Amino acid sequence: MAAAxxxxxxxxxxxxxxxxxxxxxxxxxxxxxxxxxxxxxxxxQGSPEFVPEPERIAVFDNDGTLWVEHPxxxxxxFALDRVKILAPQHPEWQNVQPxxxxxxxxxxxxxxxxxxxxxxxxxxxxxxxTTSDFEKVVTDWLSTARDPKFKRPYTExxxxxxxxxxxxxxxxxxxTFIVSGGxxxxxxxxxxxxxxxxxxxxxxxxxxxxxxxQDDTPTLYRLPEVNFIDDKAGKPVGINQEIGRRPIAAxxxxxxxxxxxQWTTMAGAPARLGVLIHHTDEEREYAYxxxxxxxRLDKALDAAAITGWTVVxxxxxxxxxxxx
Length: 324
Known about the structure:
By secondary structure, the chain is α/β, with parallel strands linked by helices. It has helices at 2-20, 30-43, 74-86, 99-104, 107-112, 114-126, 131-144, 160-171, 184-187, 191-195, 234-242, 258-265, 299-307, 314-317, and strands at 57-60, 175-183, 202-214, 217-228, 249-252, 273-278, 310-313.
């Protein structure tokens, strides 16, 4: 009888722990401990590192930090599909790069076109319509497009451990922002549903828009001109302009996030947290870092060893990658 009581109590304790664990998809390794310890220190009244709630700002990169970015950025996959849809209206694309490369499926030539070629694709496929029309195009595409490896909608290929982390931070008085090199209006239609991050807390690259009256209706029309690139050194600039507070926690996965993590963590007291997601799991997702064309993690990985940023090894530190 006594043994049964002890076993029952032990089982109850395990169950209670599982229910109280705010990060159940994380293994009990160093990164999880570092995150929980940080949150406890900055939220505990009387702690020397206590941070008032309005100052609890956490910023997250999107591609490769919150959802998949291989074999290519999701927004690039969207742009390639847009080229194919729009091609009948542009017969000249059959002989003009980088559009010809897209239509021929020549990814090597497309990659060789570099940032200039990819930017041209984005400008042509994302402009020439109102912001409302673009939102519908994005929403419709996401509802039907499937990732080539996992055969699932892209919005299902978000990292479950990071979704839990977003919720955990918000439950502890943090305001969570997405700060991405991706297009801000590509992300805003779905981030609240998928991540719990409302559109006004999404920062990203943008093209210029122009106010127009269209059939007596006020609209914003998207122009094929760059407005702001929210990547690398642009991230701290965007954070300062749009948020107006220096974050106390930043999460990224690539060299494109280096300056954001520096801006966040190299500011002295109070406590600061920098986290890099390292893609190490080729079975459950992908393994890449220093030589990758998408999401290269090289300089930032070296910086982590010097600055003390937490590096999350996806294979070792996460129980699962995606939601079942």
